[in-house]
Specification:
This protein is 59% helix and 7% strand. With 112 residues, the chain is mainly alpha-helical. It has one domain. Helix 1 runs antiparallel to helix 2 and helix 1 packs antiparallel against helix 3. The longest helix has 27 residues. The radius of gyration is 15 Å and the shape is elongated. It starts with 6 loop residues before the first helix and ends with a strand. The mean pLDDT is 95.
């Protein structure tokens, strides 16, 4: 029997994936410009808001225990943030691989 998600879960992954993917690209660009630049508190809060929501969505997945958020007290560098966000992007991609199937050339969620 193949694994499936609820419509609500699939919608959450559809909402989070493009946001985290773009955030990761943005931090890749920042890292190219200034790898050791510190991430501001307001940006950390914005990033963590997305990461925390993604972590809830990923709570039943094997990668859940490996996912961290950014620590405001440590003031992470751009490269650190890029790595953390990249782990979430990879975890979301793993969910798509696990719960989507090819239906006539389109990837669709397996919904229960």
């Amino acid at each position: 029997m193949s694994q499936s998600l609820t419509r609500t879960q699939a919608d959450e992954f559809d909402a989070l994936t493009p946001l985290l993917t773009q955030l990761h690209k943005d931090f890749q660009e920042l890292t190219k410009k200034k790898q050791d630049g510190g991430v501001g508190i307001s940006r950390i809060k914005m990033v963590n808001r997305l990461l925390e929501r993604a972590k809830v969505a990923l709570s039943k997945e094997p990668s859940f225990s490996l996912l961290d958020t950014l620590d405001e007290q440590l003031v992470p560098q751009n490269a650190d943030a890029m790595l953390v966000i990249g782990q979430y992007v990879a975890a979301l991609q793993a969910v798509r691989t696990k719960y989507q199937e090819n239906l006539f050339g389109d990837l669709v969620w397996r919904i229960r």
